[in-house]
Specification:
The protein is about 40% helix and about 15% strand. Strands 2-1-3-4-5-10 form a six-stranded parallel β-sheet, sandwiched between helices. Strands 6-9 form a two-stranded parallel ribbon. The structure holds NADPH dihydro-nicotinamide-adenine-dinucleotide phosphate.
């Protein structure tokens, strides 16, 4: 089996390089995998992307690339639209043309964040931001293409590699006596490693049973706020590394309005993952398990 992975160096893309490797031959590209002769992995050039797919003829395309800079997207909506929507549609059309399975990722930001109940897959979308709108448009283009697809909506993604929320909290707790962290946005921090592992299982099962294709919510179990997440990070870090010199005595709860930002974010990012767990027979561990593991790796 041949697989084409786009966005190989992102949080999820990096973990997919590991999790997809046992499934077959993997061609992994990033935006810089572009020259006059080789295949292009640049989602800002959808036509070249189409050529790459038609030339490589993979059995599975996994699109982990996206314009994920949520605030920046507000000031560069055309680029966000091209990368998150147009390119996803082109990938889906090309996948349909060659009979490939397309795996694509989307976000809790397609919802408006109202209420307290976890969002189900068929709940109406109403994005609050350019990023959310372009991701919603991308999903819709994938679904409209006729391509066999798996769309995974996930939330609050972190990885051990690169910068992340936990690293920021650990640094600030060493610099400041008091941290203020938002406590009115709810969701589940979800490890890129979990997303990649679930993706590999789902690909295997969907190739055997195409009725499994569709849209799924994929997030770690449980829920918290950014404030609860920060407190868990610092408490766990103290246990894992008692010699860490934290100045911070307090992680004070503040509303979202305390940190004005260009993009609006949903308050309720809870995702209902029953469909994924039921259809694929998978268990999703609670969010603390993955965060604890990530901290053990980075500390
Ligand atoms: P990252 O930002 O870590 O990775 C995205 C990757 O896409 C980066 O490697 C980036 O490259 C690449 N990329 C950006 N623009 C282009 C382009 N024009 N051509 C090719 N590659 C490009 O994101 P995640 O791994 O966290 O996200 C994976 C998926 O999950 C995305 O679909 C995202 O929308 C979704 N998601 C993410 C959430 C999160 O909290 N991060 C939450 C919910 C959903 P470069 O580094 O060079 O910019």
């Amino acid at each position: 089996m041949k697989m084409l992975l786009l966005g190989k160096n992102g949080q999820v893309g990096w973990e997919l390089q590991r999790s997809l490797a046992p499934l077959g031959e993997l061609v992994a590209l990033d935006r810089h995998s572009t020259d006059d002769h080789g295949p292009s992995g640049d989602l800002a050039q959808p036509e070249r992307l189409r050529d790459a797919v038609l030339r490589l003829r993979p059995d599975v395309i996994v699109n982990a690339a996206a314009h994920t800079a949520v605030d920046r997207a507000e000031s560069e909506p055309e680029l966000a639209h091209t990368v998150n929507a147009v390119a996803a549609g082109v990938l889906a059309e090309a996948a349909n043309a060659i009979g490939a399975l397309l795996v694509h990722y989307s976000t809790d930001y397609v919802f408006d964040g109202s209420g307290r109940a976890p969002w189900q897959e068929d709940a109406p979308t109403a994005p609050l931001s350019v990023y959310g709108t372009t991701k919603r448009d991308g999903e819709n283009l994938v679904r409209a293409s006729g391509a066999r697809h798996l769309v995974f909506r996930t939330s609050w993604v972190y990885a051990a590699r690169g910068g992340n929320f936990a690293r920021t909290m650990l640094r600030l707790a060493q610099e400041r006596e008091r941290l203020t962290v938002i406590d009115d946005q709810w969701g589940a921090p979800t490890g890129a490693d979990l997303i990649a592992d679930v993706t590999a299982h789902a690909i295997r099962q969907t190739l055997r049973d195409t009725a499994l294709a569709g849209t799924y919510h994929l997030a770690a179990a449980g829920e918290t706020t950014w404030n609860g997440y920060a407190r868990f990070v610092l408490d766990t870090a103290r246990l894992l590394k008692p010699d860490l010199a934290f100045k911070a005595q307090e992680v004070a709860p503040v509303p979202t309005s305390a940190f004005p930002s260009p993009a609006r974010r949903p308050q309720n990012s809870r995702l209902d993952t029953r469909r994924l767990r039921h259809d694929f027979g998978l268990t999703l561990p609670d969010w603390q398990t993955g965060v604890r593991r990530m901290l053990a790796e980075i500390l």
